[in-house]
Every structure is written in structure tokens, then in C-alpha cells.
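BUG: 3D viewer hangs when loading the predicted structure for this chain

Environment: internal workstation, default settings.
Expected: structure renders.
Actual: progress bar stalls at 90%.

Input used:
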Amino acid sequence: MKDKTFFFADYEGNRKTQSYPEELLVPTAEERAGNLTELVHAPGQGAPVNNPFTGTAYANNTIPAINPVAAAMLSHYPLPNANGNGYNYQTLVPIPSNTNGFDLRVDETLSQKQSIYARFSWKNLLYTEGGSGQTANQFLPNVTAQDQNRSLLVSHNYTMRNNLVNEFRFGFTNFNENDGFPIEGASAIAAMGLKGINLSAHPTGDAFPTFAFSDGTFSNIGQDRTGTTISQTTEFTDNLTLMLGKHTFKYGVDARHVRYNALMFFQPSDDYGDFIFYPGLFTNYALGDLLFGMPQESFFAITSPQINATSTQWGVYGQDEWQLNSHLTVNFGLRWELLPAFDESSGDLGSFDPKTNSVLVPDKFLATGSTTKAGNPVEQTVYTGFLDTFNACALGNKALQCSNVMTASQDHVTQGLRQLYKYDFDPRVSLAYRPFSNDKTVIRMGVGIFTQTTLGPMSFNNAGNPTSNLLTNVNAVSGANGGLARVASAFQFPNTKPATTSVTLGGGSLEQANDPRFRDPQAAQWNLTIERQVAPSTVVRASYVGMANYRLPVTIDLNQIPASTTPWDTGATADVYVDKRAPYQNWTLLMSSENIGHSIYQAGIAEVDHKLSRGLTLQGSYTLAKDLSDAQGSDAPTVFGSEEAYAVEIANRFDLKSDRGNVVATPRHRALVSGTYQLPYGEGRAFTGPRYANAVLGGWDVSTVTTMQSGQWLTPTTSPAFDQSNTGMAVRAGGGAILRPDCGSGNPYQTSTRGVFFNSAAFAETPAGAGRFGNCGVGILEGPDMIDVNSGLAKNVSLHERYKLRFEATFTNVLNRSNFVPPQTNISNTSTFGALTAVLPQGLGGNRTGQVALRLDF
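C-alpha cells produced before the viewer hung:
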């Protein structure tokens, strides 16, 4: 209806065609036929091709018979087509993407006091990608991913009286990611002839077994299982605003029902097999071992069914905005939140409580009256295997320490396996002050407490634990080691595990538990800003901002022992699975997320904002920041930490402060300048000319987005083979623990070698017998800085009253400056330490690119 109803609709479509360059290593035709002469004569090689059955060298470095499984697998590898530095095969893999989306909005004025609006958004994104986070797969078809985003928002506003307004909102969001892979895992296994792989958990899953060359002589192949991920949020919110004199009171309540549905994964290819080939074992060459069909180990992760978890969250708040006078306004507020842990629909969660030495499961997971029987008989076999991994006390094996199984109710926690904390109160106060009789100067300051939810990651930590089982089959412990020797194997393709395997009780690892008394992390935030209008179109601003986070999640190994000079698990300290000093002899790794992390961010920010005047629009800012944390999710972080570092333990749980350092991706200095300048020639501008000259030379705009920042904070590391802490780092490195070396031997930036950014002589391995971890800190190295100048050129042409044509040309990294990827920092790898080997990706400070576009508006 006229003046009462408003409609809006739009459509967005995008079609993008691009390819990803791959430079890989593949076996030659001679190598596939068994002739390994080229490998034998490669730099750093020279070992004979050992016959593991006889302990003699093969004549002419040639293996006479090729295992049929190896031949079938190698058929997926193309032949070499290049002779590059570190690669012999190159290709361009198409990675197209298509986007379709539309938005609808309706605003309706119901009466003078009531109005309603509704907005619906629909978007589909179709693209291809590789498995395990790769841009494209190696040798296999890409994964086809279809993202579906749907959202609905309905809002009703009711002005009850002049000083009382109520707003009710309903919102719904749904995200589905449907990933598909054109090869069924069971079919791939059958085609290669592999035997003994248990696919009962996912018989029709799409995947491909992984074959990994640990020495890097050839590129790996494999694809993890694909499936569907769903994330849904339904929210009801009601806000009431009351104005009384100089006070504006606001009160509100919101309820959110959150659901996620996801497939579980542990390692590449999981149920379908991860086969790893090492040099120096059977034939002395990883490829030779493949040709024999003898991996060093086979790994299987029997993964759980799809996880379906929900939680209903509540929030209540109240605030008072009090305008004391024309110069000063103060705002007081308090928010309370209740954030229950996620409840999995079938009870498929598992955690650990160190206070009772008990594995925790939801009540509904177990059959009534039993701790050894699953409520769902289909899950019994895998659950029994899970109980075996830690020698559950109910199994009756008294030869080894055991752990109990307890239900959530028995441990007095929620069915999400952690406490329901009811005291998340978040007070906040802020003020705005105008010191003069005009609005040109404003001082703002505020401080507040904010609760940070980690519900999703915390739930994912526990998801699928009791219905998953990790199986590793070691084929040989010692090998030829570059010489000639008979090497017995436990299995050979087509078999993927030993012919007979006895049940082993204990010695398993729990990749991630949560402290049952885990509380929601919180942050104290504060700011002080002085803003001044220095000209009619120009505002300058100076700010100090800070944030202190506490109770952040950190993953530790509950089975770690303190560093000492006593060797790990050797002699008098040796036991079946772990050192005798470890608190849980029936576990190997026992990782748990604990509320022990802290971080603090402080920054000074200077800004200028120039609105359009004399053809110029400009925004500029400079930030001087210091960001310290001991909860970055790693002993040597390379990216911003996630909400929860899944299955990545820190090296030393007894000295968390040793992990306190500069946050990896917060630069100390950062300047950002963006702006547009309308060139002064053309119709409606300072200078004009004849019509034909205006049409060609007039109406041009130039723009820029320029970023300048100091380098990423990096951390020196070393191989766990150099560990002097005697805490089992060789094993714990598999749980994500990273060893750091000693520092203090010189200036890390003083290097005379071209293309090398750090001086390796500034670091050293921890001395033998030190009985401690390395003393290098986290984030002590500052990587290469970045200067990225992007620019654009644009012109609008009016074709008709209702039609306009816009020409745009955009360029990234106009200066074509080499902005390098941070170098490797592992001092035990002297060939790569500190070396500048690559530049940043295109569009993110990488090589210069250009794009020209025409757009028709009507």
C-alpha cells in the first residue's frame, strides 16, 4: 500500500574461472618398473637397493617384481613432464566457482505505533577444492563443495507510548556445506586390491587411501572422507526502551537455539587407510618399499557416526544511558549469560576427569546398568575397542593401571560433560564528554567485561571419542638403515595389517578431553578516544585500546612429567607404555583443554577521516600494538590461534609462562591509507572542456588502498630428536608439542647470506644433559615487513537517463614489491632455516595483478 509498504529485492551472480598451478614430484617410468638408479645417484643418497628377504643388493638397482597394489596405486600418478627445481611434473588444475544469491525485504507500517519488517537472504556457492585444506588435490579429482546460506529476520516495533518502545526480533540462519568426491572409498580399495580394511562405519563414504612418502622424494596422494556440515541458529530477542527525563533505560532478553551437525575426522583418509613409507627401512628407499608393498606403518581411524549436537543459550541485559548535562553522557550496563554445553543427540561424547581417573560419557550412551555396553548395539564393537585402549577397570585386567567409566550424572556434570556455570555477569560502563561548548571535540572512554563462548570447539573436542578407534600397525621397528640387511615385515600388500593381532589393553591416547569444571573465558576491554574536528570535512582521532583475556583454553598432556636429567622411559624409569613417573600408566597421551591461558592486547591508534571535499576522500590510520599471550594454541604458532586448539598440546604444562610471547599475526606497526581522488577535469568538476574531450578525458577517479606493516612474529624451533627435557618429546610431538632451542648466541638478524633473513648462529641446541626445555621464547623473531599498494582507476559514462556504464581498472601491489612469506624457523633444518623462498599470494601482497571490468547500471 502507498506509503505503508516497501519492497526490496536484489540478485547477485558470479562466475569465476581460474586454475591452480601444481609443481609435484612423480616417479619416472623406469622407477615404476623397479629401476631406482636415479634415486640411488641423487644428491645425498647412494645407499644400495636392499632386498629385505635376503639382505643383498639388487643388481642394477632394480627390483624385479612389482607389487600389484603398488602398480595399481601408481596408475593414478602421471609421468614427468618437466625438469624444474624440486619438481618434475607441473599442471594447472581448474578451480572454478559459481555464486548465486538473492535478498528480499519487506517493510510494513501497520499503524502509527506499529511497524514490521522481514528480510530473507538466499545464497549458494559452488566451488572445487582439495582435501585437508589444500587448494587443489594432487593427482586426484577435486572435491566439489556446495555452500548453502539461508537467513531470515523478522522484526516488530511497537511504540506503546511516547517514551516506551518495544522491539521483538526473530532470526534464523542455516549454513550447509555439502562436499562431494567422485570416488567411493570402498571402490578405490577394491580396485587396488587392498585387504583387511574395516569399512563398516562408513561403507559408502567417498574417499581415497593416503600414500605418504615421508622423505619428500615424491608427492603424496589421498583424500579424506567428504560429507555434509550443518550449522543452524534460531534466535528470539525482545528489547524494551524506556525514556525518563535524562535517562534512557534499555532492557532485553534473548534466547538462542544452536545446532551443528558434522562428520568426524582424525587423520588423512581415516577409515580408508594412511600408509606411510620411510627411507632406510626395507629397501632403503621409500619408493622401493612401496614397490614391495611394505609401508613402515598403516594407520586407520575408525571414525564415529555424524555428530548432531544442540544447545540453548540465554542472555539478559539492562543498561541506563544518563545524560547528566549537555557535555556529559554516562552509560551503565550489566549482562548475564547462561551458556550450557552442547548435548549430542545420541550421547556420542567422551571426556576425562583427572580427579576421579574416569572417562566420562553422557548417560544415554551406555546401556542401563553397564559401563562396557553401548546403548546402541551397532556401536558396540568400536566402543569395546575404545575401552581396550585405556584398560577400562571393568575389563578386569589388574596387571596394568586402569581408568573407570562414569556417566555425566555420576560425575555431577551436564550431559555435555562439563559444569553449567551460572555466574557469567558482564558489567560495562562508558562515557562521552564534550569539554567545549561545541561538538568539535569529544572524549570517549569505556570499560567492560565480555563472556567469550567456546561452545562449538569445546563440544567438538569430545565428539565421537567413545565410537572412534585409532589403529596403528607397525610393519618393522628397525631397518637396513642405508646398508644391507634382512628386514622382516609384519604384513605386505594386499594385506594392510598383520595376519594375527592380539588385543592390547592400555597404551592408547585421548586426543582431546575438556576439564569438567571448565568455565567460559572472559575478556576485560577498555578504551580512551579523543576526537577533534579540525576542518569542516576532516576529523582526527587518537585512541588507546586494550583487552585482557583470562581463562583461555590451553591443551595440555595430563600424562606429561616435569623436565629432569633422568632419561625418559629408560632403565629404572621404563614401563609398558610410558615412563613410570607418568601419572596414568594405562594412557600414552591424555590431552585436555584447561582454563589456564591469558592474553593482553594494548594499542595506540591515530586516525584521520577526510570526507569528500575538493574531490578527495581519505581515511588513514596508524596502529602501534603489543599483543602478548600464552594461549596461542601452539608452542610455535604460525597463524592466529583458533577458539580451541584441537589435539595440539603444549610442550610443558608445568611452565605455561614459557609460552607467553608476541601474538603471531598482530604486527607491532601497521599503517593503512585508503582514499579516492576525483581528477579535476570533466563535467561538474573544476576544469572542463569541449564535450568530446569531457567524454574521453573527464570524469576519472583514482583510488588506493595501501597497507604497510611490520613482520609477523615467528618462533625458532628444532627437532624433537634434540630434546633434553626427558619428557618423551619424541612421542608427544605426535600430539602437537613443539620443541624450541636455546637463544642468546648472537644477533638473529645479522646475516651476510643473500636470501636468508635470520642468522642460524644466534641459536643452539639445548646442551646434552641439561634436563630442561630450550630457553627460546615464543614470537621473539620479527619476519619480513610488507608494503602493499593497491590502486584503481574508474570512470562513469551516462548512456541514457536510466543507464550508466562504469569502467574500472584495479591493480594489486602496483610497486610489484617482493613481500616474502615468513621463512622457516626450524634450526635443525639448516638448508631452509631463515631462507626467503616465496612471496605472499596474489591479492594479499603478492605479485602485481591487474583487472579490467565494465559494469552496466540501470
